């Protein structure tokens, strides 16, 4: 603008200001629009699922569907209990195996590992977290399934084939652990050094500092990491579909084959969707998944808020 | 344990203490510092930003060791015992030489548990009543008891920053250290809170050997018994507070005290340092007469 005269640049300036203010006003709309779009999408999904579940709910009560263990779509029997039990089994077992390892590994990476070791270990964990879970399913078919079928099951006196709830849980633990480690490391590394210095400065050891100070201060973050892992296991589809054995019956032991809510949808989706009531039943399963995840996130938010207040620093 | 804390009479000395960061770029942050921090006096370490004040302070109780790639030279002695070659484990050294960081840092615990933290770790109490009594004693010592006595179970972080900084002092004092290291403990506070913390420190220096880093010359003037002027990792001058401010022995000190540019070259040679007149004050100790403490750049 160095060449323009004074009047020109003044006029230019005011129209420029006008454009800036217009952009400012519009920005609120498009950011808001994007935000509300997400809300609308969620509402739309829930409403669609609810509407499509109505045919099933007209024939069966919710309690009946949730507590019956008889799943036989061909004879219009829709009991979801086996899949619910399978899902709970897989989620709890996976988290029981994965969470302690995730927290220990995160502490090691964030507080103990240094220099090259730290770089190498954490880059491997990031790579593991990025591998598509179908790969884990494939490798598990070649390695974990024979191991469970040939060694573990006979050792505990079971005639399981290797496909089943335990195998799925083990593999899902392997899938989500790197993911939980990454997030937990982030929350530990975000803590200010003053916390470490304050604790060490009164003569605490490193471990005492970690246990009494750092794990609390990073607690809400670690809790979120575990919950995100939990959510991933709960909604996992491909690994359970490959490894669970697909039998819709109440599992007798953790080594037994079974079904989870997502695998119920995947396994019966193709062939049975032509039957209207079956379609409605599978959509009801989807509704169930969404509602549970939603409730869970809500509860997690409340707990996290409490933790954050209690363990603030 | 008696009700009143005895004065500690601890002397902290450094012998050619050097701290080098050996990361991507090698930086000698503290260069051959030999000082004596006299018993039951408050020594202020002053100097421009980045002169190595905090590094020097943290190396006194080995707290810099939480950073990777740091090398140490020389030694620190607490009442003559080596801190770096000590038979004592590092946590015990840090209990004896406490540290309060610049940023008011409550631990993620209640007000009560913040003060009880070190006591619980060391098991330094006989009963719950004893613990209660000690928590109260140290909260009183930092003039915080009256403000928190009815909400000891509230999270420490809910206090104001000035209160938190006094809580941090109480936490450090509760493990009965002999020396207290304070890193610019008022710089993150508003003027009123800073004044309260200063008053607390003024009370505490009767009983403890305190080493305080500050960037405020006024604060050093108000609080300190002795002043050390650190510049580019070296001690330029160490003297009692009156001599330091009224009759500085060095051109650089004079320039820093006046607020003018510090000469980077010129008449700095070891001769004008405190000559060890036997008083209990922070002076550069001539441990190795052949090497002037202040090396010429």
Question: Any descriptors?
Answer:
heterodimer, A: 313 residues, mainly alpha, MetI-like fold, two-stranded antiparallel ribbon, 13 helices, 2 strands, 78% helix, 1% strand, B: 297 residues, alpha/beta, Rossmann fold, six-stranded mixed β-sheet, four-stranded antiparallel β-sheet, 10 strands, disordered N terminus, disordered C terminus, P-loop_NTPase (chain B), nucleotide-binding (chain B)
Descriptive notes:
Chain B: Residues 261-297 are annotated as: Disordered. Chain B: It comes from Natronobacterium haloterrestre (Halobiforma haloterrestris). The complex is a heterodimer of chains A (313) and B (297). Chain A is mainly alpha-helical and 313 residues long. Chain A folds into two domains: 6-59; 81-310, MetI-like fold, CATH 1.10.3720. In chain A, 78% of the residues lie in helices and 1% in strands. Chain A has helices spanning 6-59, 62-67, 81-112, 115-130, 133-142, 144-155, 165-189, 193-200, 206-217, 219-234, 238-243, 261-272, 276-310; strands spanning 71-72, 77-78. Chain A has a two-stranded antiparallel sheet. In chain A, a hairpin with a 4-residue loop joins strand 1 (71-72) and strand 2. In chain A, helix 3 (81-112) runs parallel beside helix 7 and helix 4 crosses helix 7. The radius of gyration of chain A is 26 Å and the shape is globular. The mean pLDDT of chain A is 90. Chain B is of the alpha/beta class. Chain B has a domain at 12-103 and 179-272: Rossmann fold (3-Layer(aba) Sandwich), CATH 3.40.50.300. In chain B, 31% of the residues lie in helices and 22% in strands. Chain B contains ten helices and ten strands. A six-stranded mixed beta sheet of chain B has the order 6-7-8-3-9-10, sandwiched between helices. In chain B, strand 9 and strand 10 (234-240) form a beta hairpin. In chain B, helix 4 packs across helix 6. The longest helix of chain B is centred in the middle third of the chain and has 14 residues, at 128-141. The model of chain B is unreliable at 1-6 and 266-297 (pLDDT under 50). Classes of the chains: A mainly alpha (313), B alpha/beta (297). At the A-B interface, helix 8 and helix 9 of A face helix 2, strand 6, helix 3 and helix 6 of B.
